[in-house]
Amino acid sequence: MKFDDATKGVDEIAEGHFVTIDYELRGNEAYATSIQRNKATLPEGVTNIDTDELLRLMRERAAFVLVDPRPMDRYKQSHLPGAVSISIDLSEQQQSELLPKDKNTLLVFYDGGHGRGTAITSAAAAKSKGFANVRVYTTGRAAWMEASLPTYSTKEYVQSGNVLVIDTRPKQTSAAGRIKGAYNLPVSNVNASLRDLPRDAPIVLYGDEATKALEQLTDEGFTTVTLLDGGYAGWLTAGGKIEKGPIPTAKIKWERKLEKGEVSLDDFRQAVTGKKKDVLLIDVRGRDEIGKQPLIANAINIPLDELPSQETTLPKDKMLYLYCATGARAKMAYSELVTSGFNVKFLRMNLKDIPTM
């Protein structure tokens, strides 16, 4: 995004502010026409909660309900410990039925923490329904993961088959019974096996020391690692398939399956280098994230929450390739644009793991 003397509002913002940018395309370049600082505030009677306080509530086993209002597929893939899914995609009646009956129950809402506002919208709805004690973890899942805290995946996500499942228990324990298709990698062997683990694979860990293994992988730069919600015991209780017997000695292998609407890394790279013509690359990260990791060559930045207002500026005679920090918001942006008739695909990959273009 470029700025010039005609850009309005530049002097009214500072580094770290969430802003809304109106822009226009001049040839192949995007120029900002005006910048406004976002002034989104919490609804009346709703208060913020930070990471430390939320952790304290969890550790003290306080009576509260942690609500994840994101789309169900995001919840299944990675959610905070103890969170319940009350997706904003559900009808108002369905959401109401999933909320506790006691209107004095403390409700804490969270989302991805990238300024999309799903948590704030759901918190406002709960307040309007008469709930007296409503809070929002505004920095959300992003801040939780930046603090190196674990998130969890559901049984359904594991069963999707597009994940790498690792049993961190001792070999003899795993031989007695393990999740079907899981690899055995005792926590004591994790550091020695780092080269064998694909960094672009969603990894789901389970076992008594799975949290320790997650910390080791996170310290080594793995960014898509979660724990299995309920662990092995929960898997058995839910009727998940298991296998027994000797542990295979084959190396860990994982092959990514492209989802509907997903672009391959090779095609994405060709668009970046200019070999693939008539493609517009769009980075849907927040403005504040661009400073930490710049735009890919030939890309423009339109944050996810600004897409609806910017659709009229996007070309329908070009293919749109969307990307973000992890692929999650790119997929959400894809869902919005494809329903509006755009020819669009998304890159489901961690930006830090994309090879140098």
Descriptive key words:
Oxidized Rhodanese, domain 1, five-stranded parallel β-sheet, 13 helices, alpha/beta
Structural class: alpha/beta
CATH class of the largest domain: Alpha Beta
Mean pLDDT, to the nearest integer, reads 89
Estimate the helix proportion, in percent: 25-40%
Q: What does the main sheet amount to?
A: 5 strands, parallel
How many structural domains can be distinguished in the coordinates?
Answer: 4
Kindly provide the radius of gyration, computed on alpha-carbon positions and rounded to a whole number of angstroms: 22 Å
What's the CATH architecture of the largest domain? 3-Layer(aba) Sandwich
Number of helices: 13
| Low-confidence region ranges | none
Give the CA-based shape.
Answer: globular
